TrEMBL record:
<dbReference type="GO" id="GO:0003887">
    <property type="term" value="F:DNA-directed DNA polymerase activity"/>
</dbReference>
<feature type="active site" description="Nucleophile; Schiff-base intermediate with DNA; for 5'-dRP lyase activity">
    <location>
        <position position="449"/>
    </location>
</feature>
<dbReference type="Pfam" id="PF14791">
    <property type="entry name" value="DNA_pol_B_thumb"/>
</dbReference>
<dbReference type="GO" id="GO:0005634">
    <property type="term" value="C:nucleus"/>
</dbReference>
<keyword id="KW-0548">Nucleotidyltransferase</keyword>
<keyword id="KW-0456">Lyase</keyword>
<feature type="compositionally biased region" description="Polar residues">
    <location>
        <begin position="273"/>
        <end position="286"/>
    </location>
</feature>
<keyword id="KW-0237">DNA synthesis</keyword>
<feature type="compositionally biased region" description="Acidic residues">
    <location>
        <begin position="329"/>
        <end position="347"/>
    </location>
</feature>
<feature type="compositionally biased region" description="Acidic residues">
    <location>
        <begin position="17"/>
        <end position="26"/>
    </location>
</feature>
<dbReference type="InterPro" id="IPR037160">
    <property type="entry name" value="DNA_Pol_thumb_sf"/>
</dbReference>
<dbReference type="GO" id="GO:0006260">
    <property type="term" value="P:DNA replication"/>
</dbReference>
<dbReference type="InterPro" id="IPR002054">
    <property type="entry name" value="DNA-dir_DNA_pol_X"/>
</dbReference>
<dbReference type="InterPro" id="IPR022312">
    <property type="entry name" value="DNA_pol_X"/>
</dbReference>
<dbReference type="InterPro" id="IPR036420">
    <property type="entry name" value="BRCT_dom_sf"/>
</dbReference>
<keyword id="KW-0808">Transferase</keyword>
<keyword id="KW-0238">DNA-binding</keyword>
Amino acid sequence: MEKETKEAFFDELYQLDNEDSGEEDQSNASVILPLPRSDVSARTPSNQIVHSSRPEQSLLRTVSAPLPQLSASSPCQANVVERSSFSPTPSSKPSEQVIIDTPIMAKTTASVTARKEASKTIGKRKRGQSLELKSESQQIFNGLAFYFIPNNDTSIPRKLRIRKAMEWGALWIREWRDGVTHVIVDKDLCYDDVLKTLKIKSLPSDIKLVNDRYPADCIMYRFVVNEIQPLYRVAGHDDAVMVQQPPTSALSSETSLQLRAEKQERLPPPQTPSRTEGSELTSSGRVSVDADFAESSTPQRITMPSHACPQNDLDKAIAEAQVTKDLPLDMDEDEYSEESAILDDSENEHSKEEKQRKTKSKKGSFSKSWQENFSCMSKHDGVGTSANPNARTIEILQQMADYYERDQDHWRLTAYRRAIAALRKQARKITTEEQAFALPFIGQRLASKIEEIVWTNKLRRLDNTSLDPNAEVLQLFMGIYGVGLKQATKWIDQGHKSIPELLEKAHLSKNQKIGIAHYEDFKTRIPRAEADRHDQYVRETCSKIDNTVQFTIGGSYRRGAADSGDVDFIVTKPDATIKNLRTIILDRVIPKLFDKGYLKIGLATTDKVDGSKWHGAAALPGTTIWRRIDFLLVPWDEIGAALIYFTGNDIFNRSIRLLASKKGMRLNQRGLWKDVVRGCNRERITQGTLVEGKDEKKIFELLGVPWRPPQHRMC
DNA sequence: TGTCGGAGGAC
DNA sequence: GTCCTCC
DNA sequence: GACA
Ligand SMILES: Nc1ccn([C@H]2C[C@H](O)[C@@H](COP(=O)(O)OP(=O)(O)OP(=O)(O)O)O2)c(=O)n1
Ligand SMILES: [Mn+2]
């Protein structure tokens, strides 16, 4: 019944969005409350059914009902306390389940259940009709009933707030009545305004009065936060209550500490910190480092505005901390502003103007060709990626990224990832919007977020996000081999919270079972020295069968990493075809490796005749930790493309592949192709003709990418 | 305002 | 074809 | 969310 209820909400939203003036028709008194299927007839007779848009589908009825009087004892109180149980208790009084008359919406269910990506499209096409309901586990407002009091000027943004709140499970009560759990007041309104609007003398103590920031924060934290905080206080309301609450003094003091720490951090010039990839590994001398690699340890200089790098004296630090204390710590509007950019075409002139002021073209340089902006065009050696001065900023941005991952907002997530990667590469702390904006993959919005993080440290967030248990569980589940975002989310929605629980109750694929059985093994990094031993072991075994087969370890190992997540073998043999290799490796070497007890299990192997991958697990003799092992079988003529693919990193690959496609070509693990014919709907019709596959460097050349040794491909 | 890597297996 | 997961 |  949950779903149907949401559909009706959706309908209501549709109505909302179609109000041209934004003026509320207050005479159309209506509220929405769910109506249990079994109770439809029992509960409706007292009300006159006027019209229902989809009576056969919807469990809601459109009713004009006399509005119940507000009483001090709200029957929805229970919902506030136990918001997990939404089931309207039969005893609960407000049984009138009322909804306004709504137009019929086509494809409601499709829109509701569509993936974020898809529903976004729908939203665009139909101007915000889509209500992107969150998955069950994300319905944080379930059982809460919000009454919104708008600031007269801002009816449009308010609609977005309402929409958002509903997406996260809130009921929107349009008419003041019994059962309201929260009154949400737009900023600039005070308690007196509230009383005036509601025409009441005082607000019942069980109804929470909060400002418009409250739902935004709850959504951000994915948790119904304590509303008794100065942050959410409505001016003139219940000062006594607020005083009880520990004020944010902890926050401000910590902030100032942080600021001071920053100053200290800045004192010594940025040193080249330890790093995971591209290090010289002097002890073994195994990684050869070319000349320009060493030079790269010079930190990239960023022209900083004079105000960007405050002096290190204590006074200034304290002054800054003081300023910080009074800053509104605004995460504010985060959830909304992005939408308003899409949905409110012309509204919001004020904030738009403000943005415009800063809007400048990202690249001041004019003659720079478009392809210069691809990651793969520049050297990325990973210097200074650990112990990064921007670690704290990255940490916060990562939390944002995690949030959007849960939200299944794929592209925003990758945008955050790229921004984080860009930040990680900086040798200096990025402290201002301008500095941040100058970086690739950091635009206006992220730049201002970064500055905000630097100044406020965003500590508020940690208080509540740690309380979101799903975030951790999601990461836990997604760490299982064979489990992605969808499966993990599904399990969480089913209520699973731990791996033992999965073993007991969830249906698991074969691979997932193995993934669980060796969860820790597969998460353990492989020291470079062990990777070498794998290399040796496999070579030796194979040489007894065919000593012309060549093995190269790709992946992070080839990029010079000190440790790797797995061992990526690139397997080839002079003049061999894929068929030859399959015969040797799949039919003989791999069975032999199994016989010797090295290989433990196959996880994914391409059954196709020309399949070129084998994925499994192995453990060296005398060791117990299972390692993930990849064999990529590569025909002699494709070794160049395969090396590019299997050397990565992932960002580099995506970048260079995108570059290829922009040049009308296609780069995959088999080669560089041209004349790729794409159909009207962008589907590939022909795979094109092979340009080059054999020579790694030639492929770079053909694409106009300066040669990058593996160590410099850590984008 | 449309893109954002490409492939393979399961359905 | 779509969805999901992987490299 | 960035970018062309
Ligand atoms: N999204 C991805 C992930 C990986 N790869 C390519 C580049 C990688 O280098 C190679 C091997 O994948 P791994 O997952 O093994 O990644 P790495 O070897 O780079 O890192 P790790 O140390 O985790 O193994 O596959 C890719 O093209 N796209
Ligand atoms: Mn790897």
